[in-house]
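Try this one yourself first.
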Protein backbone atom coordinates (compact mmCIF):
# COMPACT_ATOMS: atom_id res chain seq x y z
CA UNK A 1 0.00 0.00 0.00
CA UNK A 2 1.38 3.40 -0.98
CA UNK A 3 2.24 5.59 1.99
CA UNK A 4 0.02 8.68 2.16
CA UNK A 5 1.58 11.51 4.14
CA UNK A 6 -0.63 14.32 5.41
CA UNK A 7 1.06 17.37 6.88
CA UNK A 8 -0.51 18.62 10.12
CA UNK A 9 -0.49 21.81 12.16
CA UNK A 10 -1.67 22.02 15.76
CA UNK A 11 -5.14 23.50 16.07
CA UNK A 12 -5.29 26.47 18.45
CA UNK A 13 -8.79 27.88 17.81
CA UNK A 14 -12.01 26.03 18.53
CA UNK A 15 -15.74 26.51 18.04
CA UNK A 16 -18.00 26.72 14.99
CA UNK A 17 -16.72 30.13 13.96
CA UNK A 18 -13.11 28.96 14.09
CA UNK A 19 -13.97 25.82 12.11
CA UNK A 20 -15.62 27.87 9.36
CA UNK A 21 -12.61 30.18 9.23
CA UNK A 22 -10.24 27.22 8.92
CA UNK A 23 -12.25 25.82 6.01
CA UNK A 24 -12.47 29.21 4.28
CA UNK A 25 -8.68 29.38 4.38
CA UNK A 26 -8.35 25.95 2.73
CA UNK A 27 -7.85 23.93 5.88
CA UNK A 28 -9.75 21.05 7.45
CA UNK A 29 -10.16 20.34 11.20
CA UNK A 30 -9.31 16.79 12.31
CA UNK A 31 -9.25 14.97 15.64
CA UNK A 32 -6.97 12.01 16.40
CA UNK A 33 -7.80 9.53 19.18
CA UNK A 34 -7.25 5.93 20.27
CA UNK A 35 -4.64 3.69 21.95
CA UNK A 36 -5.44 5.22 25.33
CA UNK A 37 -3.90 8.60 24.50
CA UNK A 38 -5.55 11.99 24.79
CA UNK A 39 -7.35 13.25 21.66
CA UNK A 40 -5.28 15.64 19.57
CA UNK A 41 -6.71 18.37 17.33
CA UNK A 42 -4.97 19.38 14.13
CA UNK A 43 -5.52 21.31 10.91
CA UNK A 44 -4.66 19.72 7.56
CA UNK A 45 -4.84 20.89 3.96
CA UNK A 46 -8.38 20.31 2.66
CA UNK A 47 -7.39 19.40 -0.90
CA UNK A 48 -4.72 16.92 0.19
CA UNK A 49 -7.08 15.24 2.66
CA UNK A 50 -9.91 15.11 0.12
CA UNK A 51 -7.74 13.30 -2.43
CA UNK A 52 -6.55 10.78 0.17
CA UNK A 53 -9.98 9.79 1.50
CA UNK A 54 -11.93 10.06 -1.76
CA UNK A 55 -13.53 6.70 -2.55
CA UNK A 56 -11.74 4.97 0.33
CA UNK A 57 -13.67 5.00 3.64
CA UNK A 58 -10.84 3.08 5.37
CA UNK A 59 -7.96 5.22 4.14
CA UNK A 60 -4.65 4.81 5.98
CA UNK A 61 -2.69 8.02 6.49
CA UNK A 62 0.58 9.09 8.07
CA UNK A 63 0.23 12.40 9.89
CA UNK A 64 3.46 14.34 9.91
CA UNK A 65 4.91 17.54 11.34
CA UNK A 66 8.33 18.60 12.63
CA UNK A 67 7.85 16.63 15.86
CA UNK A 68 5.01 14.18 15.08
CA UNK A 69 4.69 11.14 12.83
CA UNK A 70 1.58 9.07 13.50
CA UNK A 71 -0.12 6.30 11.53
CA UNK A 72 -3.92 6.75 11.53
CA UNK A 73 -6.99 5.29 9.90
CA UNK A 74 -10.06 7.27 8.86
CA UNK A 75 -12.97 6.46 11.18
CA UNK A 76 -15.52 9.11 10.26
CA UNK A 77 -15.95 11.69 7.51
CA UNK A 78 -18.38 14.48 8.39
CA UNK A 79 -19.86 16.23 5.37
CA UNK A 80 -22.04 19.26 4.78
CA UNK A 81 -25.53 17.84 4.05
CA UNK A 82 -26.10 20.28 1.18
CA UNK A 83 -22.71 20.70 -0.51
CA UNK A 84 -21.28 17.29 0.53
CA UNK A 85 -17.97 19.03 1.21
CA UNK A 86 -15.91 17.48 4.01
CA UNK A 87 -16.21 19.48 7.24
CA UNK A 88 -14.29 17.31 9.72
CA UNK A 89 -12.31 14.06 9.95
CA UNK A 90 -12.14 11.64 12.87
CA UNK A 91 -8.88 9.68 12.75
CA UNK A 92 -7.93 6.59 14.79
CA UNK A 93 -4.37 5.96 15.95
CA UNK A 94 -3.10 2.57 14.76
CA UNK A 95 0.16 0.63 14.81
CA UNK A 96 1.77 -1.12 11.87
CA UNK A 97 0.75 -4.77 11.78
CA UNK A 98 -2.17 -4.56 14.20
CA UNK A 99 -5.50 -6.06 13.12
CA UNK A 100 -8.51 -3.79 12.81
CA UNK A 101 -12.22 -4.41 12.23
CA UNK A 102 -13.54 -2.54 9.21
CA UNK A 103 -16.32 -2.73 6.64
CA UNK A 104 -15.16 -3.20 3.05
CA UNK A 105 -17.45 -2.57 0.07
CA UNK A 106 -18.36 -5.40 -2.33
CA UNK A 107 -17.96 -4.96 -6.09
CA UNK A 108 -18.63 -7.40 -8.92
CA UNK A 109 -16.73 -7.78 -12.17
CA UNK A 110 -17.43 -9.80 -15.30
CA UNK A 111 -20.62 -10.70 -17.17
CA UNK A 112 -22.92 -13.55 -16.08
CA UNK A 113 -24.14 -16.08 -18.64
CA UNK A 114 -26.99 -15.16 -20.99
CA UNK A 115 -29.45 -12.55 -19.77
CA UNK A 116 -28.63 -13.02 -16.09
CA UNK A 117 -27.55 -10.06 -13.98
CA UNK A 118 -25.67 -9.92 -10.68
CA UNK A 119 -27.38 -8.31 -7.68
CA UNK A 120 -25.30 -7.47 -4.61
CA UNK A 121 -27.14 -8.54 -1.46
CA UNK A 122 -24.46 -7.40 1.02
CA UNK A 123 -23.06 -4.02 0.01
CA UNK A 124 -20.24 -4.21 2.61
CA UNK A 125 -18.56 -7.07 4.43
CA UNK A 126 -17.32 -6.77 8.03
CA UNK A 127 -13.75 -8.08 8.12
CA UNK A 128 -10.64 -8.18 10.28
CA UNK A 129 -7.37 -7.39 8.56
CA UNK A 130 -3.88 -6.05 9.31
CA UNK A 131 -4.19 -2.29 9.14
CA UNK A 132 -1.71 -1.93 6.28
CA UNK A 133 -3.46 -4.59 4.18
CA UNK A 134 -7.01 -3.17 4.13
CA UNK A 135 -8.43 -3.76 0.63
CA UNK A 136 -10.39 -0.97 -1.04
CA UNK A 137 -13.03 -3.55 -2.05
CA UNK A 138 -13.85 -7.25 -2.01
CA UNK A 139 -14.07 -8.20 -5.70
CA UNK A 140 -16.42 -11.01 -6.76
CA UNK A 141 -16.00 -12.41 -10.28
CA UNK A 142 -19.33 -13.29 -11.96
CA UNK A 143 -17.91 -13.97 -15.44
CA UNK A 144 -19.93 -16.81 -17.02
CA UNK A 145 -21.91 -17.55 -13.84
CA UNK A 146 -25.24 -19.25 -14.60
CA UNK A 147 -28.75 -18.05 -13.84
CA UNK A 148 -29.97 -19.06 -10.38
CA UNK A 149 -26.54 -18.99 -8.70
CA UNK A 150 -26.15 -17.72 -5.14
CA UNK A 151 -22.61 -16.65 -4.30
CA UNK A 152 -22.04 -17.09 -0.57
CA UNK A 153 -19.29 -16.18 1.87
CA UNK A 154 -17.81 -19.65 1.27
CA UNK A 155 -17.38 -18.74 -2.43
CA UNK A 156 -15.69 -15.39 -1.83
CA UNK A 157 -11.94 -15.28 -2.48
CA UNK A 158 -10.72 -13.04 0.31
CA UNK A 159 -7.27 -11.44 0.07
CA UNK A 160 -4.53 -12.92 2.25
CA UNK A 161 -4.97 -12.23 5.99
CA UNK A 162 -8.55 -10.95 5.53
CA UNK A 163 -11.13 -12.82 7.62
CA UNK A 164 -14.83 -12.43 8.42
CA UNK A 165 -17.14 -13.80 11.11
CA UNK A 166 -20.11 -14.02 8.74
CA UNK A 167 -21.52 -17.57 8.29
CA UNK A 168 -20.32 -19.40 5.20
CA UNK A 169 -23.87 -19.76 3.85
CA UNK A 170 -24.53 -15.99 3.96
CA UNK A 171 -25.53 -14.89 0.43
CA UNK A 172 -23.43 -12.03 -0.92
CA UNK A 173 -24.42 -11.90 -4.61
CA UNK A 174 -27.38 -13.39 -6.50
CA UNK A 175 -27.11 -14.10 -10.24
CA UNK A 176 -30.49 -14.41 -11.95
CA UNK A 177 -32.45 -13.46 -15.06
CA UNK A 178 -34.84 -10.62 -14.20
CA UNK A 179 -38.46 -11.74 -14.12
CA UNK A 180 -40.94 -9.57 -16.03
CA UNK A 181 -44.53 -9.84 -14.91
CA UNK A 182 -47.07 -9.98 -17.73
CA UNK A 183 -49.79 -7.35 -17.65
CA UNK A 184 -53.26 -8.82 -16.97
CA UNK A 185 -55.38 -9.13 -20.11
CA UNK A 186 -58.56 -7.09 -20.26
CA UNK A 187 -61.68 -9.23 -19.83
CA UNK A 188 -63.95 -9.60 -22.82
CA UNK A 189 -66.48 -6.81 -22.97
CA UNK A 190 -64.44 -4.44 -20.79
CA UNK A 191 -63.43 -2.43 -23.81
CA UNK A 192 -66.86 -2.40 -25.40
CA UNK A 193 -68.24 1.06 -25.78
CA UNK A 194 -71.38 1.93 -23.85
CA UNK A 195 -74.40 2.56 -26.09
CA UNK A 196 -74.81 6.18 -26.97
CA UNK A 197 -77.63 8.00 -25.26
CA UNK A 198 -80.52 9.05 -27.50
CA UNK A 199 -80.52 12.70 -28.33
CA UNK A 200 -83.46 14.62 -26.82
CA UNK A 201 -86.28 15.27 -29.27
CA UNK A 202 -86.43 18.76 -30.66
CA UNK A 203 -89.35 20.92 -29.52
CA UNK A 204 -92.16 21.05 -32.09
CA UNK A 205 -92.63 24.41 -33.64
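Now uncover the answer:
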Amino acid sequence: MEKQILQIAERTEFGKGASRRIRREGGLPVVVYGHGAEPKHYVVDYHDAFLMVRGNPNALLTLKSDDVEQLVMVKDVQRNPLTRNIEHLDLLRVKAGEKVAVEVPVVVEGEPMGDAIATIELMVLPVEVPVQEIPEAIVIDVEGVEDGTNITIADVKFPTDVTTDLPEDEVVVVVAVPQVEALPEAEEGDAAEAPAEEAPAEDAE
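Discussion: The longest strand covers residues 69-79. Helices lie at 16-24, 46-53.
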